[in-house]
Amino acid sequence: MKDAFGLPQSLLVLGGTSEIALATARRLIARRTRTVWLAGRPSPGLDEAAGQLRGLGADVRTIAFDALDPAAHEDALGKVFAEGDIDMVLLAFGTLGDQAHDERDPEAAVRVAQTNYTGAVSAGLVCAGALQTQGHGSLVVLSSVAGERARRANFIYGSSKAGLDAFAQGLGDALHGTGVHVMVVRPGFVRTRMTAGLPEAPLATTPEAVAAAVELGLRRRAETVWVPGALRMVMSALRHLPRGVFRRLPV
Fold it and tell me: Are residues 184 and 168 in contact, defined by beta-carbon separation less than 8 angstroms?
């Protein structure tokens, strides 16, 4: 069960090798989280992540999970919830894709959409149902400021995150009053392996900063978290710019 400050004892990470997710797990383990499930494609990286978290004192287990295989989600994730209540689910999987390449390769673009949106819808609904059945818990969804307004430079990724963000907000409304809390986290540019080599955007942040914001959001039982917070005003301004003006910006 979560403590009076909303922090979980048990955590399920969907996207078990995500640097943001692992930074969050480390932070929560330092507080009170004792049981962690890392769901992801079986790999040395997943095993290494589990070992690192075990070294911090948590009971860590891994489970095979593939965002691109929605038909298997209910069975795989059901096994986790069958082992005991989960206080928090962190939906952290996703792919950036390669905009220039994916525009010329529709199948690659579809994989980005299927991973970031379709897979998240499937896994999110499975976990939401399980959390509702147990009567408590938080579903934390890693969205992105890229979903606030599609940019020429990454509109395939941005559109998939826009869909995910809208889905998560609607799911939060649907679960209001059930004991299940949905929190949408909208980071800006985060310095991770996924963004390595890309030009760094203004207000860039780190996985550790996102983890700190997630913890604060849980304590406040927030519904939306921006990282850093200043991006809320920046994106609000960009979202309302006339399209002709927005199109001329170097974004």
Answer: yes
Rounded to two decimals, what is the model's pTM? 0.93
User: How many angstroms separate the Cα of 52 from the Cα of each of 36, 56, 66, 109, 217?
Assistant: 12, 7, 22, 33, 25
Question: CA–CA separation, 121 vs 119, rounded Å?
Answer: 5
For every one of its 251 residues, what pLDDT tens digit does the chain have, with 9 covering 90 and above? 665 467 999 999 999 999 999 999 999 999 999 999 999 999 999 999 999 999 999 999 999 999 999 999 999 999 999 999 999 999 999 999 999 999 999 999 999 999 999 999 999 999 999 999 999 999 999 999 988 888 888 999 999 999 999 999 999 999 999 999 999 999 987 878 878 777 777 778 899 999 999 999 999 999 999 998 888 878 777 777 777 776 777 76
CA distances from 248 to 24, 33, 196 (A): 37, 47, 26
Residues with active-site annotation:
157
List, in sequence order, every residue forming a beta bridge with 62; answer none if it has no partner.
38
**Cβ atoms within 10 Å, residue 67:** 25
